């Protein structure tokens, strides 16, 4: 990781052998007032978590499990922009480092051939109408074999090794991801979200597809038309209404 050249993200890097969740470690650092840009990696997590309260499997040395602390001057409602930017950066890094052809699923899953290979968990702390800090937790299934996934996950999850047919150097991939994220963080903070969103939309397999989305108890069905300026997904329902989706689980229909 010593070859890393970035402005903000990764200027302070801490590596743990094992943690509960790297998001927890970064949250403690955030509360202690640590500057933005710190990145915490763990070789394994005992309580890795995904979006929507799911468990995130984090076996030792097989993947990249890390979290980034950011303190952007954004309104809490614009936080989706950062998630979109992080997904775009993750996409670029994975594509260039491994040669596989990934796609983005809204808002921030990276898929290969329809199976998930990486995800981002964004956690926000806000006060009144200001962001105090944001934690971006990134999980990439790098060198897991197919047999490392429990049977129920094999149809929906995969690894870069399985898809590319070769072991991937985790340190080189980590450097590339942090460099790409640093670049996109700067783009969002300097008001260039539109150009990031354009790049995101080009690689997002969700736009133009029929989707079913569960938001709490509500089920929304329709066609994912485009991305709103703040990163929300705009879905045209069968009744012709345009719904703004800011969270939830998207299922891509055939
Ligand atoms: C998702 O559900 O797609 C998000 C997965 C995020 C997993 C990463 S691994 C590092 C960080 N620590 C966690 O507990 N979760 C995130």
Output the CATH topology of the largest domain: BirA Bifunctional Protein, domain 2
Structural class: alpha+beta
What is the CA–CA distance across the termini? Answer: 41 Å
Strand ordering within the main sheet:
1-2-3-7-6-5-4
Radius of gyration from the CA trace? 17 Å
How do the helices and strands follow one another from N- to C-terminus?
EHEEHEEEEHHHEEEEE
CATH architecture label name of the largest domain? 2-Layer Sandwich
Percentage of residues in DSSP E strands: 25-35%
> With helices defined by DSSP (H or I, 4 residues minimum), what is the helix count?
5
Mean pLDDT over the residues = 94
- How many independent structural domains? 2
The CATH superfamily of the largest domain turns out to be: Bira Bifunctional Protein, Domain 2
Name every ligand kind in the structure: biotin
User: What is the name of the CATH class of the largest domain?
Assistant: Alpha Beta
The portion of residues assigned to helices is 25-40%
- Which regions contain 5 or more consecutive residues with pLDDT less than 50? none
The biggest sheet, with number of strands, parallel, antiparallel or mixed sense and barrel status, is:
7 strands, mixed
What shape does the CA trace take?
Answer: globular
